[in-house]
Every structure is written in structure tokens, then in C-alpha cells.
Amino acid sequence: IIIDRTAYQTELPARGDIVLFTPPPSLLEIAPGVGTETPFIARVIGLPGETLEVKQGKVYINQKLLTEPYLAEAPQYQWGPIKIPAESLVVLGDNRNNSLDSHYWGMLPRQNLLGKAVWRYWSLDRMGAL
Known about the structure:
mainly beta, seven-stranded antiparallel β-sheet, 11 strands
């Protein structure tokens, strides 16, 4: 994956962006083996000011169903509803049931963003712009 480290200096994160970020303090507290030097990657799902809920295998933003064709499988957990604070995001992995993401450790502070994924070069059958 190729990351644009300058993307969020000129634009705000958008739903669907795949982002690289440093783990938030809440993850470091519950998973002490994770180091701050290890970046994570996940998809932006919830934006500041929105209400998000995961129920019955689906994600709802402000009570509207979110279409997610990229999912490996439907989430097998319930979460929320939660109100996303200013300067925070909800990021979820595409492999929802096996991902250390916001449903596990909470909101991602926007300041933790390292960049936006812009190009996937492996695997060959999935190569291209993101």
C-alpha cells in the first residue's frame, strides 16, 4: 500500500478513506504488547458529530444503513449507539470480527492520523487506486 502522508494537511478524512494511524492510548492500555511504533491501518467509518451503531450485522450512521461492499463478513457484535466527538473518528477494519479497531478500543483522535492509503500494489488481482 502506498500512503500519502500529506493528504490530511489539506483535506479532512472522509468516510471510506483507508488510513494509517498510530494506536490511541486506549488501545495501548488494554493491549500493552502493542507498541506506538507499529502503525495500524483501517477504514474511516464514522465522522465527528455523527451517531454510529452496529447491530444485526450492519453499521448505521445517524440511523441510516451504511452500504459496505468491501466487508470480508458482517460484524458479529453489537456496539453503540455512540456519538463521535469533535476531532475524533471511528475506524473499522474490513475484516470486522478479527480487527483491533474502534469497536475494540474506541475513538481515534484525528491527531493520530499518519496518512491516507492511495494505491494498493499487492495482491495483483486487487492492484489499483483506493
